[in-house]
Amino acid sequence: MKISVVHGICVRNDAISNAIADNIGWLIEAGHEVVLFAYACEHAAVPHRLVRDVTDIVPDPHFQASDAVIFHFGIFYPLFDLIMLMPAHARRLVVFHNITPKQFVGAEHHATIDKSFAQMGNVMFADHVACDSASNLAVLRAAAVTTPASVLPLAVHGQAQPCAAKPGHADGIVRIVFIGRLVQSKGVADLLDAVARCLRADSSARIALDLVANLGFSEPALVDAVHGAAAEWARVFGSRVTLRLHGDAPDELKQRLLAQGDVFVLPTYHEGFCVPIVEALSAGCRVVCYDNSNTPAIAGGLARLVPTGDIAALAQAIGDELALVRSPPWQAHGFAAFAPGAWRHAQTFAPARARCRLTTLVADLVSGTLDS
């Protein structure tokens, strides 16, 4: 069958873009002819046509012949209005990735968030909506969007078997990892504050904090805050701590940091899915995160959950993990007991499973099976 996929961008180091690339690759492998229509595309393997607006898409022969059109939506983009200008025979599928509420972003983004929630109403024109998580579906239902829906978790790649032991078991350095954009909603400032509190509270703690971030989608003030903390900590705490920022890091570096990491900390204020938590669990990292949106569900009972925005509780939770991973019982048998179970949980998001769910959903949508 012919399938069109529509989104604003498909770029590297972006969760929605990665999902789009996955979907298109799987559908092509299933024998379908797929084209992405977008303003920008950095994935060379994705068949795409760059457009300026909907008028570049409507007359396109592939679009007009499409059996299905898939729209990904997580933030306002004008091309999403194309869902109201569809070929009569085409089936309409929206993949909903959720919208970050404006209280968790800077004031300069509030207008875009308002437009995003208004445009979310376009989902009503879809024949079906696929949500990354049950919490995303709940957002639609709370907004009175009654479109038939399924929950299709994203694929999480790079799930290597956890190592037999972490480097910190031998050298005494607790390696903490953060993965995410340096933006207000990811709790970067909370993380820096909490780790500094841990260093002040425990003079024996030795910490290596590595932040992996997409700088193109980060806030300059928070990038500066990380650099400032690195300089201040070097003066105050000396060799007890290292703070490194890895901007636009390749996947190989991210996976290596997780494989070596003891604790993954993400004090995020909102997540529609949260791939990094799954990646961290797969690598055998302990996880500390705020208890909101999809974080409790995706962690599967394997994370230390902290009341959202409570920095004192966050510092206490990190401190508890520092004590745990340095303890002889953990290093002797605790880690070996924890890591395989965490990896098995992560495998529920394996790409092969996500591929089967997505290709089956599209086939059923076009055949009319979902309507029965």
Describe this structure in words.
- The protein has 372 residues and is α/β, with parallel strands linked by helices.
- The protein folds into 2 domains: 2-155 and 350-371, Rossmann fold (3-Layer(aba) Sandwich), CATH 3.40.50.2000; 168-349, Glycogen Phosphorylase B (Rossmann fold, 3-Layer(aba) Sandwich).
- The chain has 13 helices and 15 strands.
- The protein has helices at 15-29, 61-65, 110-119, 134-142, 168-171, 188-201, 220-237, 251-260, 275-282, 295-299, 311-326, 328-346, 351-367; strands at 2-6, 9-10, 33-38, 40-41, 48-50, 68-73, 91-96, 128-131, 149-151, 174-179, 207-213, 241-247, 263-266, 286-290, 303-306.
- The strands form 3 sheets. It has a 7-stranded parallel sheet. The protein has a 6-stranded parallel sheet with strand order 12-11-10-13-14-15, with helices on both faces.
- Helix 10 (295-299) links the parallel strand 14 and strand 15.
- Helix 9 (275-282) packs across helix 12.
- It is elongated.
- The two termini are 21 Å apart.
